[in-house]
Specification:
RNA_helicase_DEAD_Q_motif, 2 domains, ATP-binding, Helicase_ATP-bd, Rossmann fold, globular, alpha/beta, 6-stranded parallel sheet, about 40% helix, hydrolase, 8-stranded parallel sheet
Length: about 450
């Protein structure tokens, strides 16, 4: 039954993606859904080895140099030149690969071009770009990075994810709005912002925004903002995610999408009697690796609060739960759920502890990737420790197989469903065989004819 539910959820997710594509006008789509632009296979256009080689605005290069960024990651080298041509695209790459800069730099470059070449003017309540994100924490992080590039061009970005407290920010002119789909619909409905000059749209952490909580609002926005009757047509839509389904948008992919990083040290600990045993074992792990910075993952907020209280009672004072206003620099043990941590930059993370085992291989991929984020010096490998209970054994086994075979975890998701079907068939046959055996015995005793 559990696998039937999982399959239903996957099919529902695919339906949402398909509906999204159907609502996007033809000019945003490719002629063939199988078209893939892959920079690694394009011999005529070798990938840039430094940001200096790219045709980015000099003001952007200045900020990159000051921040210590000199070499682009693979997805950045592939995506930036393509997006500078104002093309709609799906940016799909493994967690921690630098996808945020991959879409931000060409966005800022194009906006600089509009401002200084086409004399675009920053207007009140009239943004030229909107970036959709699922959480407040990610919005603030995107805003911080984006603002550092916009300041050089005398442009402004704001974030608005709450009904109260953001009206004052909108009184002054701004160029980019970072918000959630639900909040953006509210702003449009109440005429708090206008979309007449909106040209660029980014859907960040798309797997979350196409999930049940945001899906309908995201679809409605795409329909509204791609309306051909708008005075200024939308130039492109970028969809950004670490996990993405095939679509008719142009795709920019990297070879490691959905693949677990080889350099990670991954350990699975089987917990036979959960209860307090999980709490005690997690304390032992935190004590053993006392110099590591941890992200402790739970499946819900209730469990997060429970663990936080337990750790605090055991004198682990440098722990915290992700919420607005948290300063990550002071936290050694960050307790969070998948949604709360999605896209958040916690550069110190040395060790991911999965207190609750993830519900799917893709969630495992997202969590594990938190301790292998791309830094200025390159990729920083780390540790992943998972506490596995009896109900998690099947999915944990398939993830271990993915690690051993070095194949995408999504390939094994279908295998796990097939195995589940096979188990059901075997159990049905065993049941039928037992019933047939009872029937033969009953007949031999003359109990039935």
């Amino acid at each position: 039954m559990q696998f039937v539910k999982k399959k239903t959820k996957i099919l529902a997710h695919r339906t949402v993606i398909r509906e999204t594509i159907e609502r996007v006008p033809f000019r945003f789509q490719l002629a063939s859904p199988r078209d893939i632009v892959d920079g690694r296979k394009n011999g005529n256009e070798p990938l840039a080895e430094s940001f200096e080689e790219m045709d980015l605005n000099p003001k952007i290069k200045e900020v990159l140099a000051e921040s210590g960024f000199r070499r682009p990651t693979e997805i950045q080298a592939m995506a930036i030149p393509k997006l500078m041509q104002r093309k709609s695209a799906v940016i799909a790459a493994e967690t921690g690969s630098g996808k945020s800069l991959a879409y931000m730099l060409p966005l800022v470059h194009n906006m600089f071009h509009d401002k200084f070449t086409m004399r675009s003017i920053t207007r009140q309540k009239n943004p030229r770009a909107v970036i959709l994100v699922p959480t407040r924490e990610l919005a603030l992080q995107v805003l911080s990075v984006l603002s550092s590039f916009l300041l050089n061009g005398r442009m402004r970005a704001i974030a608005s994810l709450e009904q109260f407290g953001s009206r004052k920010k909108m009184e002054d002119p701004f160029d980019v709005l970072v918000t959630s789909p639900t909040r953006l619909l509210q702003l449009i409905e109440h005429n708090e912002i206008l979309t007449s000059e909106l040209k660029y749209m980014v859907i960040d952490e798309a797997d979350s925004l196409f999930d049940s909580e945001f899906a309908r609002d995201t679809l409605n926005l795409i329909q509204i903002l791609t309306d051909e009757k708008r005075p200024i047509p939308l130039e492109y839509i970028n969809i950004v995610s670490a996990t993405i389904t095939r679509s008719t948008f142009e795709r920019i992919v990297t070879k490691n999408i959905h693949v677990l990083l080889n350099e990670l040290k991954q350990r699975f600990i089987l917990i036979r009697n959960p209860g307090n045993a999980k709490l005690e074992i997690s304390l032992q792990i935190l004590d053993k690796y006392h110099d590591d910075y941890f992200m402790v993952f739970c499946n819900d907020k209730v469990q997060c609060n429970k663990i936080f209280d337990y750790y605090y009672r055991h004198n682990l004072k440098q722990c915290g739960i992700i919420h607005g206003g948290v300063s990550f620099e002071d936290i050694r043990i960050l307790i969070c759920t998948d949604i709360a941590a999605r896209g958040i930059d916690y550069p110190h993370c040395d060790h991911v502890l999965m207190f609750d085992f993830p519900r799917s291989p893709v969630d495992y991929l997202h969590r594990a990737g938190r301790t292998a984020r791309v830094t200025k010096q390159g990729r920083k490998p780390g540790r992943v420790t998972s506490l596995v209970t009896r109900k998690d054994k099947v999915i944990a086994r398939f993830i271990q197989l993915a690690i051993q075979r070095k194949v995408p975890v999504t390939d094994l998701t279908e295998d796990s469903e097939n195995v589940a079907k096979a188990k059901i068939k075997i159990n049905t046959r065993i049941k039928s065989f037992k019933e047939a055996k009872k029937l033969i015995k009953a007949r031999s005793r003359g109990l039935i004819e």
